[in-house]
Design goal:
Length: 56
């Protein structure tokens, strides 16, 4: 399986490159499960950078 490495980053509006638990960069409590192919969501109504923490 060819997975993106943990720590991969994606910005709000980009296509999610890997299914898993994503965390808002700099916000340890802000996590969300996001599936590969979905658009990365905003957080607190702002564009943010998401970091891949765990695989789904």
């Amino acid at each position: 399986m060819n997975r993106k490495p943990l720590g991969t980053e994606a910005r709000t509006g980009e296509v999610c490159p890997e299914s898993g638990v994503w965390q808002v960069k700099g916000q340890p409590g802000a996590t969300a499960p996001i599936a590969k192919g979905n658009r990365m969501p905003p957080y607190d109504e702002k564009a943010v950078t998401w970091v891949l923490m765990r695989y789904a």
